[in-house]
Amino acid sequence: MAGTKTAGSSLLPWLGLALLIIVADQLTKTLILGRFQLGDSHTVTSFFNIVRVHNAGAAFSFLAGASGWQRWFFVALGLAATVFIVWILKQHAGQRLFSLALSLVLGGALGNVIDRLLHGHVIDFLQFHWGFLSPMFAGGYFPSFNIADSAITVGATLLILDELLRVRKTR
To answer: Which of 1, 51, 123, 150 is deepest in the core (most CB within 10 A)?
Structure first.
């Protein structure tokens, strides 16, 4: 974990960042719910659409076709991850890159947990498509996602970067 803990490091800025992610995520999903019907699509560019998709599963619709138990499994998993992340953040609040990464993951996870509790599924609305993706995704359409998913992805990438920087520093 790159960085050192500084005196007076506080958990509050990191929780505040996670809250900003949750608010941005829920606000954008509320806008989509108010303006789009399920399955609607609006072309923005030749490679980007705004859509309304409901995902009862996890990333790439994993377990979306299950009988409903996955909703509560993913809620429990998100809440357990929240407790663990807050505990880790409390101990490493002075490590900026590491804490930034965890805050993004925390905000994203809770944004999607809120969806599962309120709607029984996650609302996705960002859709990218490129021909070169056709071998991996039908028609070249990358699975739709949302702000919470983006925060989780950026956070996970930053966790990897933080670890690489830490390992490099110890050599």
So the answer is: 123
